[in-house]
Task: inverse folding
C-alpha cells in the first residue's frame, strides 16, 4: 500500500503534454517552465524541429505533416512514449496565415483553415486511449471574423461535444511582460466533471518598450552566404539582412506607410512580430532591419534559446511563435485549475 506522501504526489502530478504544430517551441517553453513534462511534439517544419530538438532535448520531437499522418499517426507516436490511460494535456496553434487580418489574400477556402477541425479529430482519437485533461488552442483574432466564423464555431462546439468546458480569451502579449502589441485568441478547454476551476491567465508586469528589450545590444552581423557562426556577435541568431534599400539612407523621407518598412520606436512596444517576405521590422535608428535575435527578445525568448535553420527559416519560426512569457502565464493558469479545484 503506498504511503500518504506517494499517494498525494500521484493525485497532484501534472498531465504530460502533447504539442501539436509546436513550431520553435514558444508555447511549450511556458509549459515546461511551469513543471509540465512534454512527451511529444510534432510540426511539419523540419527547421523548427531542429530548433525544438536543440532547446527541448528530453522531448520526442518529430517532423511530420499532421494532415498526412492524421489522428492515428499521432496516436502511434504517442503510444511509444506514454502508457495507455495516462493523463495528458494537448496544446498548440495551427498555422494562422489563412485567418490573418494582415493577409490580404486570406480566404475561407485556404486549406490551412481546415487544421482546427483536424485538431479536434486528433483530440477525439487520443481520448480513446488516454485521459485528456485539458486543451489549449492559440490563433489570430481573425479566426473569429465573419468569413471564418463557421470554422471557429465548429472548433468550440467540437470541444464541447468531446466533454470539455470551454473558455475563450483575447490576450495581448504586452499585458504579460512582453514588449509587443500582439493580440491573440486563446481557447482553454478543461475536462468536465473533474471540478476544475476556470482558467484565468494572470497579467504580469515586465518590460514594455523596445529600448528595454534591445537598447543595449551591439550591432549584428549582416547576412552573407560565407558568414561563419563564430563571426556573429553576442548570440548565434544576432544577424540581419543587408540594408540595401534607399529607404535606409538618412536622406530618404516618406510619410507613406509601408508594412515592409515598419520602423520601431525606442520608447514604445513593438508591433506584432509577424514577418513575411522582406517584412522584418526596421530598427529604431532606421539604418537596418532588426536582427533575428532582437526579434526573439521582443518576443520574450530567453537569451539561452537558439533558433536553427537558414535566415528565412529563423524569421518564419520567430514570427509564428507564442511569446514564452505569455505561454508561461497560460500554463500557470492551467496548473492552478488542475491542482487547486
Result:
Amino acid at each position: 500500500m503506498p504511503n500518504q506522501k506517494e499517494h498525494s504526489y500521484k493525485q497532484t502530478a501534472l498531465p504530460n503534454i502533447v504539442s501539436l504544430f509546436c513550431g520553435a517551441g514558444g508555447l511549450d517553453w511556458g509549459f515546461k517552465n511551469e513543471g509540465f513534462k512534454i512527451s511529444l511534439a510534432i510540426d511539419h517544419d523540419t527547421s523548427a524541429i531542429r530548433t525544438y530538438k536543440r532547446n527541448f532535448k528530453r522531448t520526442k520531437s518529430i517532423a511530420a505533416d499532421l494532415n498526412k499522418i492524421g489522428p492515428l499517426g499521432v496516436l502511434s507516436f504517442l503510444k511509444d512514449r506514454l502508457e495507455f490511460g495516462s493523463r495528458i494535456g494537448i496544446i498548440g496553434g495551427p498555422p494562422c496565415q489563412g485567418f490573418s487580418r494582415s493577409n490580404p489574400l486570406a480566404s475561407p477556402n485556404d486549406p490551412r483553415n481546415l487544421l482546427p477541425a483536424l485538431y479536434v479529430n486528433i483530440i477525439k482519437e487520443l481520448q480513446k486511449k488516454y485521459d485528456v485533461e485539458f486543451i489549449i488552442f492559440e490563433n489570430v483574432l481573425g479566426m473569429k471574423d465573419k468569413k471564418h466564423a463557421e470554422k471557429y464555431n465548429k472548433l468550440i462546439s467540437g470541444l464541447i461535444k468531446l466533454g470539455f468546458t470551454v473558455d475563450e480569451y483575447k490576450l495581448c502579449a504586452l499585458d504579460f511582460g512582453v514588449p509587443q502589441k500582439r493580440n491573440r485568441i486563446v481557447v482553454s478547454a478543461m475536462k468536465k466533471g473533474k471540478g476544475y476551476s476556470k482558467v484565468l491567465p494572470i497579467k504580469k508586469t515586465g518590460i514594455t518598450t523596445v529600448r528595454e528589450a534591445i537598447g543595449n545590444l551591439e550591432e549584428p552581423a549582416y547576412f552573407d552566404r560565407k558568414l561563419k557562426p563564430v563571426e556573429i556577435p553576442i548570440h548565434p541568431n544576432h544577424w540581419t539582412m543587408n540594408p540595401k534599400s534607399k529607404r535606409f539612407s538618412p536622406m530618404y523621407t516618406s510619410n507613406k506607410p509601408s508594412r515592409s518598412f515598419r520602423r520601431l520606436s525606442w520608447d514604445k512596444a513593438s508591433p506584432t512580430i509577424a514577418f513575411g517576405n522582406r517584412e522584418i521590422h526596421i530598427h529604431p535608428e532606421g539604418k537596418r532591419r532588426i536582427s533575428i535575435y532582437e526579434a526573439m527578445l521582443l518576443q520574450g525568448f530567453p537569451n539561452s534559446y537558439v533558433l536553427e535553420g537558414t535566415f528565412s527559416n529563423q524569421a518564419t519560426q520567430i514570427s509564428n511563435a507564442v511569446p514564452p512569457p505569455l505561454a508561461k502565464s497560460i500554463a500557470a493558469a492551467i496548473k492552478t485549475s488542475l491542482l487547486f479545484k
